[in-house]
Amino acid sequence: MTPTPASAAPPADARDGDHRFAIQCEVLRLSIRPLGPMLLVQYLLNCGVAALFAWQFSPVRALVWLALVTGVTVMRGFFPQRLPEPFTPTNLREAQRQHTLRTAIWELAHGLAGVLLFNPERPELQLLLGLILMGMTLSSAFSVSFYTPATQLAITLLLAPVIVTGLWLGAPVMMAVAVIGIGLTAMMWKLVADHSRQLEENIGLRLNERTLREQALAGLRASEQAQAERLRFFSAANHDLRQPVMAIGLQAEVLRQQLQHGTDSAAVQHTVASLSRAQQALEALTNQLLEIGRIEAAVDPLRPAAVALAPLLHELARQAGAGRIAVRCPADAIAWTDAVALRRVLSNLLDNALKFTPRGRVLLAVRARRRPAADTGRAWRVEVRDSGIGIAAESQARVFDDFEQVGNVERNLQHGHGLGLAIVRRLAGQLGIEVALRSAPGKGSVFSFELLAARPGAAAVPAPAPSVAMDLPDANAVLRPGLAVLVVEDNIVVADSLSALLRHWQVAPRVYASAAEALALADLDALDVALCDIRLPGAFNGIALAERLAQRKPTLTIALISADITEATQQLAATRGWHALRKPVQPDDLRRVLLRAQQQQLQPTPSS
User: Fold this and answer.
1) How many Å apart are CA 514 and CA 538, to the nearest integer?
2) DSSP codes joined into one string, 545-594
3) 35-39, 72-76, 229-233, 552-556: least confident range
4) Mean pLDDT across 544-565
5) How many angstroms separate the CA atoms of 448 and 442, rounded?
6) Of 87-101, 391-405, 464-478, 537-551, minimum mean pLDDT range
7) Which residues make beta-bridge pairs with 326?
8) Within 10 A of 56 (CB to CB), how many other CB atoms are there?
9) Is pLDDT above 70 for 159?
């Protein structure tokens, strides 16, 4: 399953800025759209105006003005403005300036009729010219451009020449028309601004509708993809879960028949070992599935802190054992990250490297990197290098997928289930890091990622241990018969299995299905050990029961049992002096708990 990234939504100011930018781009696209027949009609009307004034006033002046109009018409019709793709804030501003200039040239050429065709001696021609230019203004105000600054400048350049000439050289009636032209200019400015604002609102609504539609389609596609991924995940999980379950069922039948027919001890022991391996494979898979579920549900919140890398890497190398892991890490390597999640990432990468490196060594390496964008200006590059089988280039993209094992096509359960790197991918997403892979067949693999360096002087927290464990005796020590063990477990099959094992060890189990039943019926003073399942029916869970038992008998050895033992549960158990056993409980772990209780009984009680 692919987790949904928990990325923060962009700030409101950024969203508003992006929306405004998109509207401005659309307004500019509308403003430079080809006019086609309208441009031809306008040109023919201009020719008519030129002919009229050539006949009534001056052919030369009319031809000069018509030549100007012809030039700008050719410019607009045959040499349109080309917009950049894609738009950026910088090239949008440049395109707006270019559009404003072209629009100003267009309207200024038409407006020069107010100078070239102005006849100082004939008031009726002056009045006719003024009316024609005002008509041009009304017709072109909402067609020459939709970009407000360009349109307002165009109106001004179209009317300003005739207004100035009329006030300077015109007859009284023309002066009145010029004053009206000034008012008309102001009114047109306001109308253009209002019209542009309404247009932008309509464009914004259309863009919002388009965005919502695209988001809905994207959400539908993402949902379908997630559903397909989820189906693939559960199909693969179902397959791999059934494998050990089938093995357990078959080996159990083999064991039954061997015991029925008195098969020799060596064959029985072999069958029992096979049962144990199948159970271990089933437990490993369920643990990984649980971890994936916890990561995707974000159950464990991240707590970034300064983490010393060298102690963490050396501890991981020591736990892996066999002397196959080398560590190369500067002593001052301190990263700012979540220590628990980082340990899980490194553990899975290290486990993957060891599985697919039958011979040779694995190197855990850390080196400093410069990162100018970081607060500290530094970062630490962490690498897990192996000399194993390597991964072909065409397979590297899918090694982080669920249930993918490039080097284990036969699905050998000893090499895991293909979930280790899938867990790494999910944890890396939570940590905000990207795990890179460099590999070639037969030449090993290098998994690497970068961590931000902690600020100078930051106190490094100790690297967390994988679990909080108490000092327990050796499981092979002699267990004294007769220990009284309280078993509180609501699952009948699990309760019967625990009881059978305890009786085999000559221990006396007292089995109850709920906390209330145990508190009401059990002889607490006679108990030596309490095994409390955490999830119990009724008002009290296993932790509440354990607290009451500890109050009633402080010397009682208590173990919490659950399939979901969290770090918080482990810490609580360690603080109270209890034990925490994860289901399925391993017999050796349970035996150590009983031996610990036996040791406590043998210790002398301090005299008051």
Assistant:
1) 7
2) HHHHHHHH-TT-EEEEEES---HHHHHHHHHHT-EEEESSPPHHHHHHHH
3) 229-233
4) 90
5) 19
6) 464-478
7) 363
8) 14
9) yes
Name the residue type at position 489.
E
- Give the containing element (helix H, strand E) for 423: helix 420-431
- The SS3 call for residue 364 is strand
Q: Which residues contact 477 (CB under 8 A, 6 or more apart)?
A: 595
DSSP 407: T
Is residue 318 classed as helix, strand or coil in its secondary structure?
helix
Which tens digits make up the pLDDT trace of 335-359?
A: 999 888 898 899 888 888 888 887 8
Per domain, the residue ranges of the chain are 12-216, 305-452, 484-602
**Euclidean distance between CA atoms 366 and 448, whole angstroms:** 10
Average pLDDT over residues 56-73: 92
Residues 6+ apart with CB under 8 A from 130: 114, 162, 166, 174, 177, 178, 181
C-alpha count within 13 angstroms, C-beta hemisphere, residue 205: 5
Within 8 A by CB and 6+ apart from 285, the residues are 237, 240, 241, 244, 417, 419
C-alpha 382/C-alpha 492 separation (Å) is 48
Question: β-strands 579-582, 362-370: how paired?
Answer: unpaired
> For residue 240, what pLDDT band results from cuts at 50, 70 and 90?
low
Least confident interval from 253-257, 270-274, 373-377, 578-582 = 373-377
The residues, any chain, with a CB within 8 Å of residue 274's CB and separated by 6 or more, are: 247, 251
Q: Which residue has the tokens 């906390």?
A: 515
Record the tokens describing residue 273, joined without a space. 């070992």
Please return the burial class of 41, using the count of CB atoms within 10 Å of its CB with bins 0-12, 13-18 and 19+: exposed
- Condensed to tens digits (0 to 9), the pLDDT of residues 570-579 reads 888 989 999 9
Which pair of tokens denotes residue 126? 């002056």
Q: How far is CA 275 from CA 30, 197, 228, 232, 270, in A?
A: 75, 77, 34, 28, 9
What is the CATH topology of the domain spanning 484-602? Rossmann fold (3.40.50)
Q: Considering only the top CATH level, what class is 305-452?
A: alpha beta
| pLDDT for residue 511 | 92
88 by DSSP, 3-state: which? coil
Q: How far apart are CA 581 and CA 156, in angstroms?
A: 85
Residue 406: both structure tokens together: 């490039």
Give Rg (Cα) of the chain.
42
Q: In 3-state terms, what secondary structure has residue 335?
A: strand
What would the DSSP string read from start to end of 485-545? Answer: EEEE-S-HHHHHHHHHHHHHTT-EEEEESSHHHHHHHS-GGG-SEEEEESS-SSS--HHHH
161 — alpha (psi -120 to 50), left (phi > 0) or beta?
alpha
Which residue shows structure tokens 């690497």?
A: 448
pLDDT value, residue 7? 40
Q: How far apart are CA 349 and CA 347, in angstroms?
A: 6
Residue type for position 316 = L
- Please tell me the predicted confidence (pLDDT) of residue 4: 42
**Helix, strand, coil abundance in the chain, percent, nearest 5:** 60, 10, 30
pTM of the model: 0.53
